[in-house]
Fold Xylitol oxidase.
Amino acid sequence: MGAVQPLTNWAGNITFGARRVLRPRSTDELRDLVAAATEMRVLGSGHSFNRLADTGGDLLTLADLPRTVEIGPDRRTVRVDGGIRYGELAARLHAEGLALHNMASLPHISVAGAVATATHGSGVRHGNLATAVRGIEVVRADGELVTLTRGDADFPGAVTALGALGVVVALTLDVHPAFELRQYVYDNLPATSVRDHLADILADGYSVSLFTRWTGNHVDMVWLKRLEPMTGDYFGATPADGPRHPVPGMPAENCTRQDGVPGPWHERLPHFRMEFTPSSGAELQSEWHVPRAQAAAAIEAVAGLRERVAAVLQICEIRTIAADDLWLSPNYRRDSLALHFTWIADTEAVLPVVADLERALGPLGARPHLGKIFTTAPADGYPRLADFAALARRFDPSGTFRNEFLDRLLG
């Protein structure tokens, strides 16, 4: 443990108020630290853009725990420690001929942190990353180690738990045989194609992302990750003449290969390569999930604010995620379209636009990503929020893992 120097999240927009950072090297040491704490939050890779991980007490990191990658005897599961990052896990799984069902844009994020916030990849048939969780091991505020598995009554509330139940020290994930993907990028998808063929476009790949700056009558780029090869134009878009980065002006060498050459799943599913820092972190992020049936209406709603949005936007990514049964997942019991906004690093300029988008998307049933920037309390959008609050009180009756963010969210 040590005194905290000024410590920020990845983007630098949050300075944590913790008095200490704790770095346990074993689960037993971690349990002792938790049992002695009165205020604690767990810090993953620091990729949240709000005060979800902030505390005036102790920040605890799992980065120094021994790395654990234990493949089940039937080769259908893997047990991992709470501190491992997706890029490291993916490489080790691939070496064993195994794969995860999906990955997020960044392989740099921690598995436990991504699961806790329902972080996702893309694909009409693929749930978010938390849907791969089969078991979860949590150290409660009293230091007790509790294991929950799929099928337990509390399990759907304990997976995407925002760190409110305790410290996740291990997870068991579903795995599958390794596979290869091809990645293609297309430029300038016409707005008429989006209007007339949106469902077909979003379903035309293992993973599909649309990138737009909302500045013209087109989508700037389509990123397709496919099992099968493809050639020619794409719904009126043209093949990119070289590698691309999602954010204009950023170096494309940071990104995964895009020329249709087949490669391992973990080198195509993320947008960014593990060995590079994907960007400077000089950005803010927001994201809202709407029912997929409202996809066209949601895109139209954002287009109605295009000048306001474009003035503070770096890039917007549009993706799909399949439904799940996890209480604090924005995809709870509905297939979703996610509208992700990477903003300029100017909170004062961005927040009014965030509020405009919330007003426009709210009537469509929008749910905010709880690890990113939003201003409207999401109680109406998350129907199991009260059930989760009750679960959190059972696991943490003293409020050791509560903070101001969770108090506002849960009441």
Summary: The first helix runs from residue 27 to 36.
